[in-house]
Design brief:
- The structure holds 2 protein chains of 2 kinds.
- By secondary structure, chain A is of the alpha/beta class.
- Helix content of chain A is 38%, strand content 28%.
- Chain A has a single domain, classed as P-loop containing nucleotide triphosphate hydrolases (Rossmann fold), CATH 3.40.50.
- In chain A, strands 6-9-10-3-11-12 form a 6-stranded mixed beta sheet, sandwiched between helices. A 4-stranded antiparallel beta sheet of chain A has the order 2-1-4-5.
- In chain A, strand 1 and strand 2 form a beta hairpin.
- Chain A is globular.
- Helix content of chain B is 16%, strand content 50%.
- Chain B contains 4 helices and 17 strands.
- In chain B, the strands form 2 sheets. In chain B, strands 1-2-4-6-8-10-12-14-16 form a 9-stranded mixed beta sheet, with no helix packed on it.
- In chain B, helix 3 runs antiparallel to helix 4.
- The radius of gyration of chain B is 20 Å and the shape is globular.
- The chains are: A alpha/beta, B alpha/beta.
- The interface between A and B is medium-sized, with 28 and 24 residues.
């Protein structure tokens, strides 16, 4: 593997869904503790990148590599990628009827971080995170995502993020469909996690359409993705430009640059 | 005799050559479940239970079937609930792999009475179990929750039937089944609403999960509705574990086997949660978990 490099390092990643190439060579590195935003129009391949990195069986990797602090992820099953320190917040998380949130989160925590936290401490930790997210403790006895509203699903994703404290978190449109209050809770939860010892080194890749989540969790780097490629990388001002101008001027600029 | 009438009548449980008799006199409520245990190796090939509940009586009965022997056992249960009685009859069948069982259970439910059947069929080489609830009085209610789980080469056939014979009676039937390995199952879900049973409401929900390509369960619902002004609902699903569910759990670090186990146990939960008492539910979950662990290919 050569010299191990800290970071979530994606290089030359190409991936297909149903034999159609969606990712056409992605190079992107998320450093520990940094926040990267990935923006782009619908269909540009943002979610494909998230699923390909996580090991979803429907996403076929055609080439390139993804490594996490030096560990090659692409050869690993999804659970091993998670145990290596990768977390994906789903845009549409699955409902698992009959499995309580408490049981699920406890099982996940023990899988990712074995032999820590006695039950009482674990309970205290969950209650603390619930409070930051403005969630009721009754939430814990409900079945995972079963009958949840859109906002509740996203809060549960954020609760898992806070409890699992991964090395790198990919948030796939966590902000979409959230009202102002829910977005604020989500932002607060992420910032609270980043303020802990467990979460201060977590690197983020925030996939979003809108810069509004970035006002709660400021991005260090902003990438623009189009047609399966990253076409532009810049600072936080790039997100503001997207909001002002949309993607058209960037598209023209990129096309002009090529021509 | 005047003195005797002051003494509260109590539940009596007796055994004779015909079987086990449970009598709950009118008006008597018992909070403690009445447990009837049969070890198949000790039974004379039959296990018969008769429950008679007087008006307004309330009780929970738990029938446990355990043991292992190369035998075919006949099980019969008869529950007779007088007006306004409330009887919950729970079956926890966990016999060994050599036993064959042919069980027939029937309840007669009087006016405004309720009979709840909770049936868990966990063991046996070949098991046939039939649960029939016959509504004899207006306003009668039956609730049936059942689960079965054939693995290896086990064969299970379950029939539930609710007979709405009189007006304004209600029933809810919930059945959950999983087959794994070469397990085979068949479920017949019958609802009969007779011509004069107007104002009746019946629901039947059965869901099946198949683990592995050799497992098979057929579900055959039959709703026979001969009355007007009734409500009847039927819903059913059959399928394998959704790969998206597995992926979601695996993306949280949970191994594939453990993810399948969580999902399968969760699948039984709508039936398990209807069983009475936290201790019994916990016991049932443990038994299901053990069976699931043993069912791995």
């Amino acid at each position: 593997m050569g010299v191990s490099k800290r970071g979530l390092v994606i290089s030359g990643l190409r991936a297909a869904v149903d034999s159609k190439e969606i990712l056409k060579g992605i190079d992107l590195t998320v450093e520990p503790g940094k926040v990267h935003a990935l923006m782009g129009p619908n269909g540009s391949g943002k979610s494909t990148l998230a699923f390909a990195m996580s090991g979803h069986p429907n996403y076929e990797v055609l080439g390139g590599s993804v490594s996490l602090d030096g560990t090659d992820l692409l050869g690993l099953s999804p659970d091993k990628r998670a145990r290596a320190g990768l977390f994906l917040s789903f845009q549409y998380p699955a409902a698992i009827p009959g499995v309580s949130v408490a049981n699920f989160i406890r099982t996940a925590r023990m899988a990712v971080k074995p032999d820590d936290l006695p039950p009482a401490k674990f309970r205290a930790m969950i209650y603390e995170k619930l409070e930051v997210l403005d969630m009721d403790a009754a939430f814990l006895s409900r079945y995972v995502n079963d009958g949840f509203s859109g906002g509740e699903k996203k809060r549960l994703e954020m609760l898992q993020l806070a409890i699992l404290a991964p090395k790198y978190a990919v948030l796939d449109e966590t902000d979409s469909g959230l009202d102002v209050d829910a977005l604020q809770s989500v932002g607060k939860s992420i910032e609270a996690m980043r303020a802990t010892d467990d979460g201060k080194d977590t690197g983020f890749l925030i996939i979003t359409h809108y810069p509004r989540i970035l006002r709660h969790v400021p991005a260090d780097v902003v990438h623009i993705m189009m047609d399966g490629r990253i076409v532009k990388t810049g600072g936080p001002d790039l997100a503001e430009r997207v909001e002002r101008e949309g993607y058209d001027t960037i598209r023209e600029e990129v096309a002009g640059g090529v021509a | 005799m005047a003195l005797l009438s002051v003494i509260a009548p109590t539940v009596s449980v007796s055994r004779d050559e015909r079987g086990t008799h449970v009598e709950i006199p009118a008006g008597v409520n018992t909070d403690e479940p009445i447990v009837i245990s049969y070890d198949v190796a000790d039974t004379a090939l039959v296990a018969q239970t008769f429950v008679t509940a007087g008006e307004g009586a309330r009780a929970t009965i738990v029938e446990r079937l355990t043991g292992n022997a190369d035998l075919e056992i006949a099980v019969t249960t008869t529950v007779t609930a007088a007006a306004r009685a409330d009887i919950t009859y729970t079956v926890l069948q966990n016999v060994g792999g050599a036993v064959r069982i042919d069980a027939k259970r029937i309840s007669h439910v009087g006016a405004e009475a309720r009979v709840g059947w909770n049936v868990a069929l966990l063991g046996g080489a070949s098991v046939t179990d039939q649960v029939i609830s016959d509504h004899t009085g207006e306003g009668a209610n039956s609730e049936i929750a059942a689960l079965f789980f054939p693995v290896a080469r086990e064969v299970v056939q379950l029939t539930t039937e609710v007979q709405h014979n009189v007006p304004h009676t209600t029933s809810q039937t919930v059945v959950r089944s999983i087959a794994a390995g070469r397990g085979r199952g068949r479920y017949f879900g019958n609802i009969r609403i007779m011509p004069h049973a107007h104002g009746s409401e019946a629901s039947l929900r059965d869901d099946t999960l198949l683990i592995g390509k050799d497992a098979k369960i057929d579900a055959i619902p039959a709703l026979e509705i001969a009355a007007n002004d009734v409500k009847a609902f039927h819903g059913a699903t059959v399928g394998a574990i959704d790969e998206e569910h597995i992926f979601y759990l695996m993306s949280r670090g949970i191994e594939r086997d453990a993810a399948e186990k969580l999902i399968a146990l969760g699948f039984f939960e709508p039936a398990v949660s209807r069983f009475p008492g936290e201790a019994l539910r916990a016991e049932l979950r443990t038994l299901l978990e053990e069976k699931l662990a043993g069912a791995r290919r």
